[in-house]
Amino acid sequence: MVPFNFLYPPKPEDSLGLVLSLSSVPCLVYLDISFCNLLRIPDEIGNLHSLVGLNLGGNKFVTLPSTIKQLSNLERLNLEHCKQLKYLPELPTIKQKNIGGYYELGLNIFDCTKLSDMEHCYSMVFSWMTQNLQVFFQPTISSARIKMEIVIPGSEIPKWFNKQSARTAISMDPSDVIDDANWIGVAISVLFVTHQHPMNLGERDDDRYPTFFCGVVNSKQRYTVVPINFKRDLVTVGLDHLVTVFYSRQQFIHLLSTPPNTMHDIHQTAFGTFTRNPKCLRVVVKKCGYRWVFKEDLQQFNSNMFFSTNSSSRKRKLLTRD
């Protein structure tokens, strides 16, 4: 994927040029227009119906056009470091799938410091998550392997995640659910914060080197990168965030049974995280938690189970009711 900002100089007035450029590539699948100083995203972006991945990070727009909902193939949306973003519109739901296979969905809202209505934002994220899950739990693709990953501001893990640990990892025992026909997957949440650490010279010279990793582990550690840009001059330090990961039943079993692991290792299973501190920063995992998800959970989902704001505080907060 060639980034747009590599082909054109980043100027605030580039929105018109962007429209003209995009109109000639309606079959575009991946688009990276991050850090182009864009003051707005044109409505015409909704015409790119083939888009699967869209990176808008680091731009200066205040909101997204409502036409973004028309991107019915969009599986990954990156809004990290959009520090002027105040409002999140309704996000697209992927269209009905007819085949199995592996699908990886992602929504990254890291370091969007001016989001003004967090309750609305959480509602939009919740709607995106549940509607996409419902697409994948149709009988026609019940064998699909799904991973969904969300990064969003938040200061507490909701109590809905009924197994929690104030550590960087948490043990998981799937033996009670592995044969349950109503079990559809597992939802995991990680609370983390980034601090300033001037004495840290970084473990790698390249700022693009991955920093945050998480994954299901047993006899062999298997981590994947959480795609967050932790470059020092971009990150707002001291702001809590949540990473929420959903693995479908088929994907979770696949992770457990991938060689050299075997299903006999399930009693040693855990969800773990680790970090490589970027230059002049320190990433701290405060807490993690998980919940086995069943069919009835999907039917009973509502946004109050996950997201709320504390009107007496400007601090972003997740609901912590029982």
UniProtKB/TrEMBL annotation:
Superkingdom of source: Eukaryota
One Pfam family hit: C-JID
Organism from which the protein derives: Vigna unguiculata (Cowpea)
Alphabetic keyword roster: Leucine-rich repeat, Repeat
Stretches assigned to the C-JID domain: 152-298
Protein name in the entry: C-JID domain-containing protein
Classification via InterPro entries: C-JID, Leu-rich_rpt, LRR_dom_sf
